[in-house]
Fold:
Amino acid sequence: MSGLIRAFGVTDIGCVRTSNQDRILVDDAAGLYIVADGMGGHGHGEVAAELAVTTSQFYVQASRDRFDVSWPFGYDVELSLDENRLRTAIQLANRQVWKSAEESPERAGMGTTIVAALVNGNRAALGNVGDSRIYLLRGGALTQLSSDDSWVANMVRNGALTAKQAREHSMRNVLTQAIGSHSAVEVHTSEHQFESGDLLLMSTDGVHGVVDEAAMRSILFATPDIERAGQQLVQAAKENGAPDNASCILLRYEPESAKS
Structure:
């Protein structure tokens, strides 16, 4: 079943930062949507995020001709074709950011999170590194689909912390991996099949780290217009002080029969 994806992205400097190190990409032609949260002083986070987004976009566009695709990191037969494309795109992004930092000592320590969706018909391949997130709103329930690469997330997975404790922990912002932090990264991927009315939220921690999940769910559920919903999420972050840049992309799936 084919359908239509409606997409809207918004990024905001927030209330404290002097620059915006987040980058978002809405590429409807390629079906590619990316949110990246750069880190590193003196504007280097912006460089890392921009490089990660452009590298990923270039590979996804170049791998459209599926009969002539190179797989520089190998092909995982356990994953779908589009998961492999997204995984490779993100690994290439990591290589480029790592290489850029190696070649310019002043950029040492720069990096970025990345979360991406590659949509084809009624399916979406999802990938992430870092703690930017993808959520699914379906039937009023908000579910996180991505896997956080953070110290507190590992502690929650191991049963050492509750989700509430993790949210308030002093080490909640400590990442275990990010794009550019290591020469190689593990990309978390999954594939999602859309149902009518599904909404995907892709966000930096400037949104989901400031606006709790109950409030995000309430905004998304009560606001069918995705542009208004995205702006309300950022506004909610700003009302809570927005200590970081706040960025998100919303994707709503409408089946063929629902198209106007």
